[in-house]
Specification:
The protein is of the alpha/beta class and 290 residues long. It has helices at 24-33, 43-48, 53-62, 82-102, 120-141, 167-176, 189-193, 199-203, 243-252, 266-270, 273-288, and strands spanning 2-5, 38-39, 66-67, 70-71, 106-110, 114-115, 144-148, 161-162, 183-188, 210-215, 258-261. It has a single domain (7-288), classed as TIM Barrel (Alpha-Beta Barrel), CATH 3.20.20.150. The two termini are 12 Å apart.
Amino acid sequence: MYSVLNTTDDITHCGNLGHVIHDLAKACKLASYYGFEGVNLDITRLIQEQLTVTDVKQLLAAYQLRPAAFSLDAYMYCFHSEKEYLSSLHDFAEQAAFAHQIGSEIALFYIPPFSNNLPFNDYFQLMVKRLKQLKPILIEHNIKIGFEFIGPIETRLATAYDFIHTIDGVRALIASADLYGYAGFKLDVHHWQYSGAGLLDLKHLDKDYLVYVELNDALQGYNLFNMPEFTRELPLATGVTDIAGFVQVLKNKGYDGPVAVEPWNDTIRKMPLKEALHSVKQSLDKCMAL
């Protein structure tokens, strides 16, 4: 496992630290200073800002950082039209080619746990169809999707339809889209625990499914049915989430991929940037040492 700094700016990118750094050189410098081993990249922004593959590779090499992951920006949700989706495939192919050349092979994708447009069966079939169309790009550029499911029920209470929100749901999607070997999990410990899954579910996951990991801790005073989704603590801060068990299973399975902290925490968000990064790295180091 290796530590990753994420300062990308959107939930559909790579996570939420509460601090955004658009300047890649600055992000790399800070990542190196605080001892992170990799950084997430906003490939879309890098292309828009006309940074070249050589520019990015030189920055990463200068600070001895690994290019961890980027966002899968294809328009695959049910509220995207077929025309929007097909148009976005061209952009994703460009992003995937750029990512491959700099050594980033993980594209992260958030699966909404609900829909107000389509019932489950229709949405599932639409997602399978679009993923099958996407697959040739993954093969050509050696990219693997990390799917993130959302476990807590808070986000589904007032919606029309449920959608994928469990480990088995993601595995069914991967199998149906014939993506085994080209897709796995962006596995957030919060979503794992508050989807009702346990350590046995992790033990039974093929190692090939393990693509990217996020750590945080849950709030005290809640349970499986009312735990908030968008308010959390740094990992090991409250002891509510079984981080030790989670990390140990991953280590036992030989997981050697990226690990990031995603706290969704106002205290971290309001800290000065350097203080926030120091706190995040300290908590991540404690988790990695478990």
